[in-house]
Amino acid sequence: VGYSNLRAMKMAAERNGGDDVATPSATASIKGPSITVAFTLYFVIPLVCLGLASVFGPGVIPANQKETAKSRSVPLQVNVPSAASGNGAAPLMGEKVTDEQHRQRQEQKKQRKKKNNSKKIKSQYEQVVHVVEERKRAVREQVRLRTGATQQKRSSKPKQNVKRGRRAGEDVVKTEMDKTIATLKVEYEKNPDDAFTMIEYADALRERDVIIHDGGRNQLVAIDVYHNAISQIRERRQQLVNEGRPTNVPPNGVTVLDLNQELFFDLREKSLDGLLCSVFSNLGKLYFMANMFEKSVAAYNECLAIDENYLDALTFRGSTRIVLGKYKEAGTDYTRVLELDQNRLFMDAFTGISKVLAVKEDNVAGGWETMVKVVEELIPAKEQHMQSMVVPEGKALLADHLKRLHLAMFTYHDVKTKDLKLAWEHLSEGMRVKMSVLPPYNRANEEQRLNSVIQVFHEGFWSPNVGSQDRTPIFIIGFVRSGSTLLERVLDAHPKVVGTGEDSVFNGRLGEIRDAIVEATTQGGDLGATVNKLADGVVKEMMDRWKSIDANTEKEDESTSDVEPLRFADKMLTNYNNVGFIHMLFPNALILHVAREPMDTIFSAFKHDFPSGGLDQTSDFSSLAHMYNDYRAIIEHWDRVLPGRITHVRYQDMVEDMPGVARALIDATGLEWDEDVLNFHKKKHAVNTLSTTQVRKGVYRDSLQSWKKYEAPLQPLVKLVGDRVKYDLKTTLPSYVPPSSLSDERVGTQ
Question: Does the reported pTM lie above 0.85?
Answer without folding.
Answer: no
